[in-house]
Amino acid sequence: IPGVHTVELYRGLARSKIRHITPRHEQGAGFMADGYARAGGRPGVAFVITGPGLTNTITAMGQARADSVPMLVISGVNATDTLGKGLGFLHELPDQRGMMEKVALSSERVTEAEELPGALARAFAVFSSSRPGPVHIEIPTNVMVKPAEGLAPVLGNAAPPAPDAAAVAEAARLIKAARRPLILAGGGAKKADAALTRFAEALGAPVVETANARGLLHRHPLLVPASPSLKAVRALMADADLVIAAGTEFGPTDYDGYGDGGFVLPPSLIRIDIGADQLARRPVTVGIHGDCAEALSALLAALGAAHVAAKDGEARAAAGREAALAELRPDYLAQLRAVETIRGALPGAIIVGDSTQPIYAANLYYDHD
């Protein structure tokens, strides 16, 4: 949203190829960036003014951080020689960047025009090499007016960490010995659909999905698109002799949605996550730090073509789906029929749901394309 603290950047924006959409409110700008990233898979960008413009985006940034959505928020900030002095300038905050560091993965201030390409490169490197989320860059008003002709963009994509060979080998050994493997897929596996499908088929393993993983393995016979908060899904997990968790943080909203404390972490657990901090938060048998698609492909290679898939995987998945649906309340089943009716009437449409009964029902069980 344009304002006195961003007008200088808008002068250049008009001459660029960037498509700009003006919302009514900065919170809307934040959620539009979030939605753009979710729908298209590329980072969304919000451009807001100093102070209240930036604070209005915090709710959207918090949601993006919770759901690992790549979002770049660029804001203005008062002139560099006024910062931290409490002189009462328009929209002044005691420590705007310090505030952002509490919700963003990183917050950086550009103090010279020449620093901008590097700041952007570091932001996009975060999106591609680690667990994504919101990143903030602030530009002081006295820096915005400086000439920036000739600044070359810097390639910002960075490779995620390569899966550790020893961890992959140990995980493959456990998989070869398992007779009833099961896969848990979370939002971190969203870009690993092909690798996850090949891996599940090679193991003959049912795939249980959290809400953020829905859409993977759509209509696949190994899919169980049901919440681990359901007793039926927990029973399916308890029956497994090995669980491979790909890109899931084991958060209570997915695994203990009823707050009954009934979820138990699997005793034999291989966990794949791009965030090393996530792997350290819960006990695992084997932890693989890396991108889900790369790690699953590495595991497939380590298993080799001679690996024999479990014969009963599809039957176990079918039984899990049937038991999960049977556990849902009649009113939730009616809500799911309503969602299916909407989807049937609007094929290919993106359905956005707030905190409503149809969404509560779909969080428990829903397979969308």
- CATH architectural type of the largest domain: 3-Layer(aba) Sandwich
Q: Mean of residue pLDDT?
A: 92
What spatial form do the alpha-carbon principal axes imply? globular
Count up the domains.
2
Number of strands: 11
Give a quick account of the main beta sheet: strands, pairing sense, barrel closure. Answer: 6 strands, parallel
Rounded to the nearest angstrom, the radius of gyration is 23 Å
* CATH fold call of the largest domain: Rossmann fold
Query: What share of residues are in beta strands?
Result: 5-15%
Strand order of the largest sheet: 8-6-5-9-10-11
Under CATH at level 1, the class of the largest domain stands as: Alpha Beta
Number of discrete helical segments: 16
Indicate the percent of residues in helices. Answer: 40-55%
CATH superfamily of the largest domain, by name, is TPP-binding domain
Distance between the termini: 34 Å
Regions with little confidence, pLDDT below 50 for 5+ residues: none
Helix/strand structural class: alpha/beta
- SSE pattern, N- to C-terminal: HHEHHEHEHEHHEHEEEHEHEHEHHHH
Kindly describe this structure.
The chain is an alpha/beta fold and 369 residues long. It folds into two domains: 138 residues, Thiamin diphosphate (ThDP)-binding fold, Pyr/PP domains (Rossmann fold), CATH 3.40.50; 163 residues, TPP-binding domain (Rossmann fold). Helices cover 41% and strands 14% of the residues. It has 16 helices and eleven strands. It has a six-stranded parallel sheet, with helices on both faces. Helix 6 links the parallel strand 3 and strand 4. Helix 10 packs antiparallel against helix 14 and helix 15 packs across helix 16. The longest helix is centred in the C-terminal third of the chain and has 16 residues. The chain is globular, with a radius of gyration of 23 Å. The model has no long low-confidence stretch (mean pLDDT 92).
